[in-house]
Amino acid sequence: MNNKTLQQLVDKNFNNYKKGKVADYIPALAKVNPKQLGITIYDLKNNDRIQAGDVDVRFAIESMSKVPVLLLAIKDRGIKKVFETINTEPTGFAFNSIMNMEINHRKHPMNPFVNAGAIATTSLINGKDAKEKFERILAFMREICDDPDITLNKEIYQSEAKTGDINRSLAYYMKGNQMIEEVPETLEAYFKQCSVDVTATGMAKLAAVLANKGVAPWSNQRIVSEESATIVKSIMTTAGLYDESGEFSVHVGVPAKSGVGGGLMAAVPNSYGIGVFSPALDNCGNSVAGIQLLKDIVQELDLDIFK
Ligand code: GLU
């Protein structure tokens, strides 16, 4: 595939934005222009990337942050501690549902990509306070996305913090069950990690590290262990797209993670890291045009891992 073929697929899928709507739970996301679609594909074989559309537009990482923060928590605390705190089971419940803990007999969050699990993951990040935790998360995101310009979007952060009562209730529920300790500190870091601005290209690079067994293909430096890259890809496969994860696995078939900022990344083992951005979302909170475009790419390049 070359830039021209990719551009044709972007053109073909562009109007899918009309089938969705941008996230409106906070004003800063509600005013994002829905008419955007961009994709970067990082090809591990040629160590090169192809791209088309709005690949340099900055957008809020939101739930895609759950991937780098999980990788950092594993680096900080080790696989055993992280997965004693958070399970790795898929869930059919909405991403912010308290049911993601209640139905589990051990009362631990079901997985690191539902909000309860993500908040518990953030609580495991090393750092003496919220500021230090978030600085470490930001530095790690910049490294794994190979993007020194990733910064906090203060407007989004303030809105997330102001409207985050469901997340607060999940956190206090976990504190009440001795699953996490510091609620305000953890939530400050969590709201901030969701509010950083990234690009489709940066997300493609993060996905490329996962696809490449933890090694950054652009520098040949190991960023995370092979084992953690494998685990995270498998959780992406079962729980990466909220309560649409099963359908996405059946119809697209690559490890992926979405965010309500309109981002979608896919890590195709040993071959590609893909970052997509289009802000109009379907009912489950996933990018409508993004999923359709990714589906076309997967078909075109024959990437379905279950084939
Ligand atoms: N900051 C959002 C929340 O915790 C994340 C939304 C998302 O991308 O799922 O509610």
TrEMBL record:
One of its GO terms (molecular function) is glutaminase activity. The keyword Acetylation applies. Its EC number is 3.5.1.2. It is an enzyme of class 3 (hydrolase). It catalyses: L-glutamine + H2O = L-glutamate + NH4(+). Keywords: Acetylation, Hydrolase. Substrate binds at residues 63, 115, 160, 167, 190, 242, 260. InterPro entries: Beta-lactam/transpept-like, Glutaminase. It holds the Pfam family Glutaminase. The keyword Hydrolase applies. Homotetramer. PANTHER family: GLUTAMINASE. Belongs to the glutaminase family. This is Glutaminase.
